[in-house]
Amino acid sequence: MTTGTPARIVVNALNRGALIPNLDRDACVEVPGLVDGLGVQPMAMGPLPLHLAAYVRGAVDMQGLTVRAALDHDRAAIGHAVMTDPLIQSRLTLDDAWRLTDDMIEAEAEWLPAWLGGSAAG
User: What is the full DSSP assignment across 46-98?
Assistant: First the structure.
């Protein structure tokens, strides 16, 4: 953007219902983009094949739950988000998923906001 020299890169952008129309409007999607002196212009990719859209929607929902947990300062909601992960579902019991969530929060406590039991501001 500074030089004005166009470059094609991968960007994360708000979907706005247009970049990948069969994903949520407010999802953040990763698509090709053009960067030049005018800024970043993400490129519309069209709809994903149904099986891929279904897979990605699960990840988008999990991310949304995580954001909602952070905004609401809801530690239990973080555990609920973890439990939506397909790898967690396939390998852990619910009790194990709660323990994993607690262990991860404890391990990263110095980087987490105070409401979560951490020491970082927030």
Answer: -PPPHHHHHHHHHHHHHHHHHHHHHHHT-HHHHHHHHHTSHHHHHH--HHHHH
